[in-house]
C-alpha cells in the first residue's frame, strides 16, 4: 500500500499505538505473564525432578504471545496457556517455521517469484496444490471468520455503550469504521479492519515469540547477566514471594529498570525476528555508502546506482551486527553496551534510520513498524516476570543456538537438530517459594 491510502490508514491507526494507550496495556501483558508463571509453577510441581523442570520454552512463549495479542488486540482470552486449543493457535502456531523453514526447490522458486509478479496473480497461487499454500490459505480462512465474528460483536458492544473506553485495538478499529468518528478521514471498511487485524497478528505473534525465546536462551547461557537482571527486577518489582503482579502493573516502573531495557535491546540487536527488508526503487537513483566498498576488481565504490523497479534487499542482521557500528564485539551478547552508549550520539552515517535504538528490527521511514512501542513493552514485561520467578539454564548439555531463516523471519533452533523445530530448551527452578 502506498501514497494517500497508506497515510489515511496510518492516521486511523495512530490512536491504537500512541504511547499513552500502549502503556495502558501493561497490566494486560503482566496478567498474561502471571498466568504463564502460574502454569510453569504447576508443571514444576507435577513434572519437575529435584526442584527443576526441563521444557521447550518456545512453545510456551508462543502461547503467551497468543494470549497477549488476544487480550490487548481483540479483548478476548483464548485459554491457550491453560491447555485450550483455540483455532487461531492451531492455524498460526509455527506457521512461519513449518511453511518457510528449509524450503524445497519448488518452495525456493515460489518465494522468489512472489517478489516479481503482480499481486493479482499471487491471489491465484492460493489454488496451488502445495502444503505451504494450503497452510497459509487455512490460516487466512480461520482468521477471517474469527475476525468477522469479533467485529460484529464489538460493534454491538459499542452501540450499547457509545462511550466505551478504548481498551483494545479492535475497539479503536471498529470505532474508526463508524462514520464521522475521525472527522474528515474516510472511515475504515470491515475489509480494512480485517486486514489490519490480520497484519497485526502476523507481525506481532511469531516475531515477539522469537525475540523473547532468543532472549531467554541468551540469559540461560549467561548466569552473571541473568543474576544482574534478576537483582534489578527484584529491587523494583519485588520478589515473587512478595506479591503477585497479575493486577495493576504500572508501565512507568519499566523506566526504573535500565538493565532490563539493555537486555531486550541486545536481544533485538543480536536476533532480529525479521532478518532483512525488501524495498523497490520507484525511480532511478543513487544509494550513497557510508563507507567505501571494495568490489571484485579491487576498485572502491562510494555509491550504488539503482534503476526504477529494481528490488533492494537490506540485511537487518548485517547492520545489527556490524563491527563498524557496534565495535569488535558486535557478535557477543553484551547488554552493558547499552548502559554506556548514547544512541543519539552515533554518527549519522552509522545510523539505520529506524524509530528505536538504532536497530533495524522495526524498519524506518514513513512505513516503520507502527507497533514498535507495543512490542518493546510487551517483551520487557514478559522477560521481567519470568526472570523474577525462575532461574534459567539450558537443559541440553551440548546445546548450540541456531538461527534458522524462514523466509524473512529468524527462528531459534538447535544446531544440527533442525528437525526438532523451534527450540528454547530451558531448565527452570524457582528462585523463591511460590507466592
Write the layout of secondary structure elements.
Layout: H1 3-13, H2 19-24, H3 26-47, E1 52-56, H4 57-74, H5 87-92, H6 95-100, H7 105-113, H8 119-122, H9 131-160, H10 169-176, H11 190-204, H12 206-220, H13 223-237, H14 258-270, E2 276-280, E3 285-294, E4 300-306, E5 311-315, H15 316-320, H16 323-326, H17 337-340, H18 372-389, E6 390-394, E7 401-406, E8 409-414, E9 425-430
Helix pairs in contact: 3-4, 3-18, 4-12, 9-10, 9-11, 10-11, 12-14, 12-18, 13-18
Observed structural traits:
single chain, 435 residues, alpha+beta, Cytochrome p450, 2 domains, 3-stranded antiparallel beta sheet, two-stranded antiparallel sheet, globular
Explain this structure:
Its cofactor is heme. Helices cover 48% and strands 13% of the residues. The protein has 18 helices and 9 strands. It is α+β, with helices and mostly antiparallel strands and 435 residues long. Helix 12 packs across helix 14. The longest helix is centred in the middle third of the chain and has 30 residues, at 131-160.
When the domains are counted, the total is 2
SS field, number of helical segments: 18
For the largest sheet, list the strands in their spatial order: 1-9-6
Report the structural category.
alpha+beta
Overall pLDDT confidence: 87
What global shape is seen? Answer: globular
**CATH homology-level superfamily of the largest domain:** Cytochrome P450
State the low-pLDDT regions, or none: none
Instruction: Work out the strand percent.
Output: 5-15%
CATH architecture of the largest domain: Orthogonal Bundle
Question: Major sheet, described briefly?
Answer: 3 strands, antiparallel
The end-to-end distance, rounded to whole angstroms, is 49 Å
In angstroms, what is the radius of gyration? Answer: 22 Å
Total DSSP E strands = 9
CATH topology of the largest domain: Cytochrome p450
Helix percentage range? 40-55%
Helix-strand string: HHHEHHHHHHHHHHHEEEEHHHHEEEE
**Which CATH first-tier class of the largest domain would you pick?**
Mainly Alpha
Protein name: Cytochrome P450
Pfam families: p450
Family: Belongs to the cytochrome P450 family.
GO molecular function: heme binding; iron ion binding; monooxygenase activity; oxidoreductase activity, acting on paired donors, with incorporation or reduction of molecular oxygen
Amino acid at each position: 500500500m502506498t501514497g494517500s491510502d497508506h497515510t489515511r490508514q496510518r492516521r486511523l491507526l495512530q490512536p491504537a499505538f500512541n504511547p499513552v494507550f500502549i502503556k495502558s496495556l501493561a497490566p494486560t501483558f503482566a496478567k498474561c505473564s502471571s498466568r504463564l508463571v502460574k502454569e510453569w509453577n504447576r508443571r514444576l510441581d507435577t513434572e519437575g525432578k529435584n526442584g527443576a523442570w526441563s521444557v521447550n520454552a518456545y512453545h510456551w512463549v508462543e502461547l503467551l504471545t497468543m494470549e497477549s495479542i488476544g487480550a490487548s488486540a481483540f479483548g478476548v482470552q483464548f485459554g491457550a496457556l491453560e491447555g485450550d486449543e483455540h483455532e487461531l493457535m492451531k492455524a498460526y502456531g509455527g506457521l512461519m517455521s513449518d511453511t518457510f523453514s528449509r524450503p524445497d526447490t519448488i518452495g525456493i522458486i515460489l518465494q522468489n517469484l512472489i517478489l516479481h509478479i503482480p499481486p493479482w496473480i499471487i491471489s491465484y497461487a492460493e489454488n496451488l496444490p502445495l502444503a505451504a499454500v494450503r497452510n497459509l490459505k487455512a490460516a487466512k480462512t480461520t482468521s477471517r471468520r474469527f475476525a468477522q465474528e469479533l467485529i460484529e460483536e464489538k460493534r454491538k458492544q459499542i452501540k450499547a455503550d457509545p462511550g466505551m473506553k478504548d481498551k483494545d485495538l479492535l475497539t479503536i478499529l471498529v470505532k474508526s469504521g463508524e462514520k464521522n468518528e475521525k472527522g474528515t478521514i474516510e472511515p475504515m471498511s470491515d475489509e480494512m479492519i480485517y486486514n489490519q487485524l490480520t497484519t497485526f497478528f502476523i507481525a506481532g505473534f511469531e516475531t515477539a515469540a522469537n525475540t523473547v525465546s532468543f532472549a531467554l536462551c541468551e540469559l540461560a547461557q549467561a548466569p552473571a547477566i541473568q543474576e544482574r537482571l534478576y537483582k534489578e527486577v527484584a529491587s523494583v518489582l519485588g520478589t515473587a514471594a512478595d506479591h503477585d503482579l497479575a493486577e495493576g502493573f504500572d508501565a512507568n516502573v519499566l523506566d526504573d529498570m535500565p538493565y532490563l531495557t539493555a537486555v531486550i535491546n541486545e536481544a533485538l540487536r543480536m536476533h532480529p525476528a525479521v532478518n532483512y527488508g525488501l524495498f523497490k526503487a520507484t525511480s532511478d537513483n543513487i544509494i550513497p555508502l557510508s563507507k567505501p566498498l571494495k568490489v571484485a576488481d579491487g576498485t572502491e565504490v562510494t555509491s550504488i546506482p539503482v534503476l526504477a523497479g529494481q528490488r533492494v534487499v537490506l540485511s537487518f542482521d548485517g547492520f545489527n551486527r556490524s563491527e563498524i557500528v557496534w565495535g569488535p564485539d558486535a557478535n557477543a551478547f553484551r547488554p552493558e553496551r547499552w548502559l554506556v552508549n548514547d544512541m543519539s550520539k552515533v554518527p549519522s552515517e552509522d545510523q539505520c534510520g529506524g524509530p528505536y535504538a538504532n536497530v533495524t528490527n522495526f524498519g524506518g521511514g514513513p512505513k516503520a513498524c507502527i507497533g514498535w512501542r507495543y512490542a518493546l513493552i510487551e517483551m520487557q514485561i514478559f522477560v521481567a516476570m519470568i526472570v523474577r520467578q525462575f532461574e534459567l539454564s539450558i537443559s541440553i548439555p551440548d546445546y548450540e543456538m541456531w538461527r534458522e531463516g524462514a523466509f524473512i523471519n529468524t527462528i531459534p533452533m538447535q544446531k544440527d537438530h533442525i528437525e526438532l523445530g523451534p527450540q528454547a530448551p530451558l531448565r527452570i527452578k524457582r528462585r523463591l517459594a511460590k507466592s
